[in-house]
């Protein structure tokens, strides 16, 4: 039942209850059970957090910020039952990149609260193993049996565990309902991350390992630190317990300091960053600390935000539009030609169960060729229905089809892509360009250490003066200033603001220029 709580750390009103075998509170609305006590120690000083972070940093991560998020997960995992939101991690990387070594060492650090299970474990097995406990769960080689149905069920369980706002109820052969509420955080590892829907991906943070560099000295240090941390679990858990309130307060402070982003992404990042920061600093975070921390990891935060821009309905439509037929044309391009009045591809469209009608198109959702289109996707076994976007091809040439063709995502800076993607696809090219160059203005102001009251062209005039840290990185600061300022003035105040039509191809080129400005700014920050 949802009122029953097993082993773990929980919030009970304003109190934090550590149910590891201690005396539970008498005046609680919950029933605390501990059928097998967990060993505890008060000697939290016997663990060196810098050593833990150093071990994580030795592996070959895609981003230098990823070990910091992993450190944060190792902290909040101990107290996952007390968290308002539980993020999950999925570590992906090629064979022999160190995933298993990392899992073994990390879960050793979480003894005795951590639970390590085989990657082939089922949802029912995990749920029954946890019972009413609130414990972190690690699954290595998650794709070991390639059973997509099993993996989807486990991911669905993780999704429920993120907030655990409501109990899940399952029927039983005896005719009685089985009620359970999972408050665990999960750590998965696999070569290929298998996360289904957009809603699932918004709850899982994917960290990427690259192949190791065969550096023998690094390998020796990894082995040495792994052994050093073998018996550090009780002390690590004790340190988390000591600073549990600081971590919870830090999460709230970070949430308030984050710029406008998708709410679940903010929850994920705030929780992980707060856990890592408090463990390293061993005190409560203030607003200034939060702003500095966000700025330090801004690149990874923006990069991970892309996963939250996705929408299942849009992805379903994009899978259809992007499908390549036997004539080497995508369905999307054939529909675009048909919209222009060209009927040369009409037979091929109808062969795939698609019929043009009244400026839009109909899809025979049970047509054999449509099943072929979605084969191997998350929609392969389900009912396929084209969403409202499918009927919006009645718009003018600035349509979704054109946007998909012109928006070269690989050339765009992540922070710009995240900001403009939806508007560009909707045909709001003018707004997308304005927002992109506004992002350049904001990032330049931050890099130059200017106050928020400095806006517009003044940002670029002052960004490269004698008082700015950017000037030190410039061999020709006047040239840099003119480049940034003129690019901003020309494109932020484009003639389209005076009702001159902005074509999609021109807008796409402007977005690439804005991205190049941001990449240039990052290079200057690195050199300063």
Detailed description of the structure:
There is one protein chain. With 528 residues, the chain is α/β, with parallel strands linked by helices. It contains 22 helices and 13 strands. A hairpin with a 2-residue loop joins strand 12 and strand 13. It starts with a strand and ends with a helix. About 4% of the residues have low confidence.
Q: What topology, given as strand order, has the largest sheet?
A: 6-7-10-5-11
Count of β-strands: 13
- Percentage beta strand: 5-15%
Q: What are the segments in which pLDDT stays under 50 over at least 5 consecutive residues?
A: 383-400, 495-499
List keywords for this structure.
single chain, 528 residues, alpha/beta, 5-stranded parallel sheet, two-stranded parallel sheet, 22 helices, 47% helix, globular
